[in-house]
Design goal:
The strands form 7 sheets. The chain has a 4-stranded antiparallel beta sheet, with no helix packed on it. The protein has a 4-stranded antiparallel beta sheet with strand order 5-6-7-8, with no helix packed on it. Strands 9-10-11-12 form a 4-stranded antiparallel beta sheet, covered by helices on one side. It is globular, with a radius of gyration of 20 Å. It is mostly beta strands. It has helices at about 5-25, 50-55, 200-205; strands at about 70-75, 80-85, 90-95, 105-110, 125-130, 135-140, 150-155, 165, 175-185, 190-195, 215-220, 230-235, 245, 255-260, 270-275, 285-290, 305-310, 315-320, 325-335, 340-345, 350-360, 360-370, 375-380, 390-395, 405-410, 410-420, 420-430.
């Protein structure tokens, strides 16, 4: 592909981004069935939120693209697990004992009639704690546009069976509880985070203005059987961008998300939760992690990636516009989440939806990019803790495809990408 074509493709991507930003908020009511906002039933079902009736009332709406959102994680026994939706919209899991060369048949899970969001920035997540505890979280869209609840399936027998789904949060309003993220910390505490609009709704009811949404969280100290109170992490998050989690240096987990700083700057924020982090009540210390100063009134549907660095602090990737230039950037963060040194653009003007993972001094970043004819799957790999990187081509597809994922298994870094034909797995390190 020549330089002119690459520049044209990047220009087309920016036009599409701005069109999406302009449409995101004003047309919310008219576009409830589009893929970026998940599945919703017809309004007016009358079923109380959080009940079996409300979950049965939510049924898939027509979509412009396949529901290919895929969760992935390595189990303690070395098996690679993925969570996907089948052609009938049912949640299922599959295992591979050889890093994706062969797969066991998919197994359909009982979600109690829930529909499951599995596209764009929202997909079912898998997490393990020890040899027997497996949890799968997902966003279940409700009848009203852009509303949902965070649901969780739990297994105490290594995934042989799962208990019925439970709702993670205690708030049962028919509002946004979406874009879930989960992780076990080193002590086995399960952290669940999501985007929540209860404070926006309260502000509207009292005639006050409110920027964006909020980040909420809950902890489980019994492997997902029960959850503590809903706790606000931060006001004024972006509305539709995924949340990134990583093990925190002092215990607990670190979180990074797109935030709406005053008056409308959509950079990224960082906080440490649990471990050495401030305990509730009260919000944890929020740190500004990216400095693009992107002023935009709309959500770009493009969340960050975060992983721990071997020498302390974190590696991060994110999308933003800086001085008129839109790009995915890589940067280092301190243990508190402050930006360290200049951010670097990925070597691809069309890069989007990047993920990042580290193992020792090895760091890998994967992303997808459209070159005008096909979507490319690419990686940037470092062996010196992010000082230098080498570009690697992983594959391409002309079919519908999901955002790429990165996983760690011991000291190995493994990339995973799904398109309409199946799942591709590549070992990047060693």
């Amino acid at each position: 592909m020549n330089t002119t074509s690459a520049q044209a493709s990047a220009a087309m991507r920016r036009v599409a981004l701005w069109a999406g930003l302009l449409l995101c908020a004003p047309l919310a009511a008219q576009t409830a069935s589009t893929a970026d906002h998940g599945a919703h039933a017809q309004a007016g079902t009358g079923a109380p939120p959080g009940t079996a009736a409300s979950r049965r009332a939510s049924k898939p709406a027509a979509r412009k693209r396949s529901m290919l959102g895929t969760g992935a994680a390595f189990a303690p026994d070395g098996a690679l697990w993925i969570s996907t939706l089948d052609g009938q919209g049912r949640l299922n899991v599959q295992r591979s004992m050889d890093r994706g060369r062969t797969w066991e048949p998919p197994r359909v899970l009982d979600t109690g009639g829930d529909t499951v969001a599995a596209d764009g920035e929202s997909w079912p997540k898998i997490a393990f704690s020890g040899p027997r505890t497996v949890v799968i979280s997902y966003t279940h869209p409700l009848a009203k546009p852009y509303t949902g609840e965070i649901r969780l399936l739990r297994s105490d027998d290594g995934g042989a069976s799962f208990a019925p789904p439970v709702t993670v949060h205690h708030d049962r309003q028919v509002i946004t509880h979406r874009f879930d993220a989960i992780a076990f910390d080193a002590k086995g505490v399960l952290h669940a985070l999501w985007i929540d609009k209860r404070d926006l709704e309260a502000a509207k009811a009292s005639g006050q203005k409110y920027r964006g949404a909020a980040i909420y969280r809950a902890e489980s100290h019994d492997g997902g059987r029960s959850f503590g109170p809903d706790t606000r992490v931060a006001d004024h998050s972006c509305e539709c961008c995924r949340i990134a989690l990583a093990p925190a240096t002092g215990g607990g987990v670190a979180a990074m998300w797109r935030h709406v700083f005053e008056p409308n700057l959509r950079d990224h924020a960082f906080a440490v939760l649990g471990g050495a982090a401030p305990a509730s009540p009260g919000d944890p210390a929020l740190v500004r992690a990216s400095l693009d100063h992107w002023a935009v009134d709309g959500c770009p549907h493009h969340g960050p990636g975060l992983t721990a660095a071997s020498e302390g602090g974190y590696h991060a990737v994110w999308f933003g516009q800086r001085q008129g230039r839109a790009a995915v950037r890589y940067g280092r963060l301190s243990a508190r989440g402050e930006a360290l040194g200049p951010a670097r653009e990925l070597p691809d003007e069309a890069a989007e939806h990047a993920d990042i993972q580290s193992a020792g001094r090895h760091v890998a970043i994967v992303w997808r990019s459209f070159d005008g004819q096909a979507t490319r799957w690419r990686a940037w790999i470092s062996a010196d803790d992010g000082q230098t990187f080498m570009l690697r081509e992983l594959g391409r597809s002309t079919l519908d495809n999901d955002h790429p994922r990165l996983l760690r298994q011991g000291q190995a870094l493994v990339a995973l990408w799904r398109d309409a034909e199946g799942v591709r797995v590549e070992t990047l390190v060693p």
